[in-house]
Specification:
transferase, globular, transmembrane, transmembrane helix, Acyltransferase, two-stranded antiparallel ribbon
Length: 449
C-alpha cells in the first residue's frame, strides 16, 4: 500500500542526497599553491584514477529524483483535486527554485563583474566561476521534469510501471545512437529520459507499484547492479559516475546506460532499507536533524562551494595551508581537517543566509483575477525556456567562461525568472490550494513536496 501523508523517509532521502553531494564536491576538490603563489585545482578523479571508484558512493542524485517524483506525484494529485491548473502548479514549483538560484547567480555575477573591472587574472576568474557553478547541472534537468510532470503523471495513471520501463528502453536506444553511432546532440535527450526514469519510478513508489512485495526491490537492485557491472566491466563505460575531463564515453555527460542501471539499483536498495529507515526516523532527534537539513537544502546546495573560496583565500593564498603531494597519504590525512573547517564555514554561511531563504520560500506574489488559469500562459513557458537555457550554460561553462562576464546568459536568467515569477503570481494560488506542508521549508524540499 502506498504511504499517505508526509513520508519521513522521502525527506530523509532528499537530505541525505544533498549532504553527500556537498561532501563529495569538497572531497574531490584539491587546491595547490605553486611557487609563484597562484592557486590551481587539479582534477582528483583524473590525477588519481582509483578515486573514480569512490563516485559509486557519492553519486546519489538518483535518490533525489526518486524522492522528487514521489512527492511531485502527490503534490500534483492534490492540486488537480483542488481545481489547480498545470501552469499554476508548474509555475509555483519553478519559482521556488528560480528565486534562490537567481539570487545566488546574481550575487556571483556581480562579483564576476567587479573582478573583471579591477583586472583579476582571467584564468583565476574562470576557475572560480566554474567552481561556483559546478552544481548547476541539476537545476535545468529538475525544472524540465517539473514542467513535464502533469503529462508524465497522466501517462503514469494510465500505464503505471510500464512508463519508466518504456522510457528506459528509449534511453538505451539513444545511448546506442550516441556512443556507437556518434549521432550528434541526440544524447542530450537522456538528461530527461534517464533521470526521468527514476523520477517516474517515484510515482510508482508512491502508488504502491514497487514496494508491495520484496521481489520487486530485490529485482531492481540486482538487475541494476548486474547491468552496471556488465556495462562497466564488459562494455564501454567507465566506473566513474562523475564527469572526468577527457573521458569518453562519460556516464554523466550525457547520462549513460550505466548511469541508468546505477539509478535503478539505487531505487531497489532504497526500497529494501525503507522499513528499517522509517523505524529509525520515528526518533524525534533523528527526524529533527532531517527537517533542519531539508529546510536549508537550497542554501546548502547552492552555496557549498563558497567555503572553498574562503579557505583558499585564508590559508592557500597566504601559504598557511600545508602542501603535501597531491593525492599522497599525507594529503588524504589532511582531508579530515579540510572537511571539518569547510563544514564550520558552511554552517556560518547558512546561518547568515537562512533569513533570506525563509523570505524567499514564504514569498507571496499575490493572486490575480486569472488565477483559475484562464490568462495567457506564454510568460511561464517562455520564462522556463530562458531559465533552463541560462542554467544549462552556467552548468557547462561556469559564471566566467574564458574569464569574461556572460552577458546573454545573465540576461536570460534574469528575464526568465521574472517571467516565471509574474506568471506564478497569476496562477500559483490556484495550484497552491492543493498544497500541504509548511511555508518556510527549504526551496529544494518545497519544490519536491
Amino acid at each position: 500500500m502506498p504511504v499517505m501523508g508526509r513520508d519521513r523517509y522521502v525527506d530523509f532521502l532528499r537530505a541525505w542526497a544533498i549532504l553527500l553531494v556537498v561532501l563529495g564536491h569538497w572531497l574531490i576538490t584539491g587546491l595547490v599553491r605553486d611557487p609563484d603563489g597562484e592557486i590551481s585545482a587539479p582534477e582528483l578523479l583524473a590525477t588519481v584514477p582509483w578515486t573514480q571508484w569512490l563516485t559509486m558512493g557519492f553519486q546519489v542524485m538518483p535518490l533525489f529524483f526518486l524522492a522528487g517524483g514521489y512527492a511531485a506525484g502527490g503534490s500534483w494529485t492534490r492540486a488537480r483535486a483542488a481545481g489547480g491548473t498545470a501552469a499554476g502548479w508548474v509555475g509555483q514549483r519553478a519559482v521556488r527554485l528560480l528565486l534562490p538560484a537567481g539570487v545566488y547567480s546574481g550575487l556571483v555575477l556581480v562579483a564576476v563583474g567587479v573582478c573583471s573591472v579591477v583586472g583579476v587574472d582571467p584564468f583565476t576568474l574562470a576557475l572560480v566561476g566554474w567552481a561556483m557553478a559546478m552544481q548547476f547541472w541539476f537545476l535545468p534537468v529538475y525544472l524540465l521534469l517539473s514542467a513535464l510532470t502533469p503529462g508524465m503523471h497522466a501517462l503514469h495513471r494510465r500505464w503505471g510501471a510500464r512508463v519508466p520501463a518504456g522510457m528506459g528502453a528509449v534511453a538505451l536506444l539513444i545511448g546506442v545512437l550516441d556512443v556507437a553511432m556518434d549521432v550528434p546532440y541526440v544524447g542530450a535527450l537522456n538528461y530527461v529520459l534517464v533521470w526521468g526514469v527514476v523520477y517516474q519510478l517515484g510515482f510508482c513508489w508512491r502508488d504502491g507499484l514497487l514496494g508491495g512485495s520484496r521481489p520487486v526491490p530485490v529485482g531492481l537492485a540486482l538487475g541494476g547492479g548486474v547491468g552496471f557491472a556488465a556495462l562497466v566491466g564488459l562494455g564501454p563505460f567507465p566506473v566513474s559516475l562523475i564527469l572526468v575531463t577527457g573521458q569518453d564515453p562519460s556516464n554523466t555527460n550525457p547520462p549513460s546506460a550505466a548511469m541508468l542501471a546505477w539509478g535503478v539499483a539505487q531505487v531497489g536498495l532504497c526500497l529494501l532499507v525503507a522499513p528499517a529507515a522509517r523505524r529509525v526516523l520515528e526518533q524525534e532527534r533523528v527526524w529533527h536533524a532531517v527537517r533542519v537539513t531539508g529546510a536549508a537544502s537550497m542554501t546548502l546546495y547552492l552555496w557549498h562551494m563558497l567555503p572553498v573560496l574562503v579557505i583558499a583565500a585564508a590559508f592557500y593564498l597566504t601559504g598557511l595551508a600545508p602542501q603535501p603531494a597531491f593525492g599522497s597519504a599525507a594529503w588524504w590525512g589532511w582531508r579530515v581537517p579540510w572537511l571539518l573547517v569547510l563544514g564550520v564555514v558552511l554552517v556560518g554561511v547558512v546561518r547568515v543566509l537562512w533569513p533570506l531563504e525563509r523570505r524567499l520560500a514564504a514569498l507571496d506574489l499575490g493572486a490575480r483575477p486569472d488565477a483559475s488559469g484562464l490568462g495567457p500562459t506564454w510568460p511561464l513557458w517562455a520564462g522556463l525556456g530562458l531559465s533552463v537555457w541560462a542554467l544549462t550554460y552556467f552548468a557547462g561553462h561556469g559564471f566566467a567562461h574564458g574569464g569574461r562576464f556572460p552577458v546573454w546568459p545573465a540576461v536570460a536568467l534574469g528575464v526568465g525568472t521574472v517571467l516565471v515569477a509574474c506568471r506564478w503570481g497569476t496562477a500559483g494560488r490556484a495550484a497552491g490550494k492543493g498544497r500541504t506542508g509548511l511555508r518556510g521549508e527549504g526551496a529544494l524540499e518545497e519544490a519536491a513536496s
